[in-house]
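Usage example:
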Amino acid sequence: MNAIRKHFPFLEEKFNNKPLIYFDNAATTQKPAEVLDTIQAYYKKMNANVHRSINPLGELATKFYEQARADVAKFINAPSEKEIIFTKNATEGLNLIAQTFGDKHLKIGDRVVLTVSEHHSNIVPWLQQKKKKGIIVEYIPLEKNSQKLDVKEAEKILRKKNVKILSVSYASNALGTIHPVKKLTALAKKKNVFVVIDAAASVAHLSTDVKKIGCDFLVFSGHKMYGPTGIGVVWGKKEILDSLPPFLGGGEMIEEVHKNSFTTNEVPHKFEAGTPNIAGAIGLSSAIQFISSIGFKNIVVYEQELTKYLFESLQSIPSLKRYGVDAGSSLPTAAFTLGSIHAHDVGEILGRSGIMIRSGNHCAQILHNDLKIASTARVSLSIYNTKKEIDVLKKSLLQTQKFFL
Amino acid sequence: MDIYAQNIMDHYKNPRNWGRLKGALTKHSESNRSCGDILYIDVEIQDDAVKNFTFTGEGCSISLAAASILGEYVIGKKTDDILKMNFKEVQKILGIEISQRREKCAALCLLSIQNTLLKSGKKKLKDFSDIL
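Running the assembly step on the lines above writes:
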């Protein structure tokens, strides 16, 4: 893994004169030199607007931007690049789906089914639909003891009247639990329920295959998979996208504009109003190449080993309580409480040792309420983290405990 | 000074005026949902001044120590003067330097106390942006 670390210039930085230990990968990952170089090369050598500037440079930028779309399609095994919409991030993607698909298909009394573990970005857009149209939002709970997603309960909820959409995360961003999305999708499809998958948390850790899952939409962010911030993806089935109203209005998304009306451009451009994040898309494509060069097989093997080591190390700390499932069904993420010490204080003391974690509710207040905890400390790993770093974490957690005793 | 100064840790481990006041007094709670901090404040007002103050709640060392220290400070003070206070004065009273990411932790107690007083005067409550 030392070879992989060398790709990430930021990992050589020091913090408080201590080597940086970056354990907040679920928030955003660091970027390999390849991605940074690609973005810089784009701005240095081919910066131009896409699709509209009829000049050779505009054509070159368009070529690279559209190639990025094709690369994304391949990355998630989408049937066509026309089904790939570039957004700002997964949040914007979920809002796009709620506001276009939701607006078209939801009416008063309809149900949208989520899980209690969803990130706020997969809750609030549906609550906005609830406010607007009077839909019902249902939440699949966790099993009490195992903290696994309660699939039996999911079946029950999906059997209720007027269920229109199931919108679930591939994995919980807060606990790391991987959800059985294929199974849930199959259950939903039996009832003709549309399925949206939020793959933001899992996209850097598990291979994503929209055909295998069988869903209708899938979203993710580039910055959680070694790409730049400000670029995200919505994948949707072409026939569905074709039938939807546009999202934002502006340049590129139109075909004709008249004083009192307009017609829309073809998919995916219909959903990409305004100059897009061209450098972001090209940077994302570079991140995809980086991931492909390692391969998900290797990523999963190494991260599983790290996850096991992390969970065991945490377990050996007295009064530490970890939430979530076993390593085998989890992303390399651990959410925990340390006795009565507030997560902010844990994060603060670890920060002084150069260890960057996240403390709070990780945009998952419903989950924390359900677990009856105010906040957790979250350690989230990535391919460049090491067992040695986990040892430093363990030592620092023991010191934190002593400090607050 | 370090946010985990001896004084702060002392108030965190042994909070002063911890508990609830009995009887018909002004009660109010204020929370900082993004961190999961919550303070429950009970105040007894006499002759436009704070006669008694207690608090309980959950929070990080900074939010709880700040409530303990500020609670001691406001007892005996005129309510009008307390309502004029801002975050700079809290920082001065705590005697530590607070980074931006911990500002809300340290400001929660002032917000809670001021809103307790505003509530008793049936006035519009403040939010974080009014004091930070």
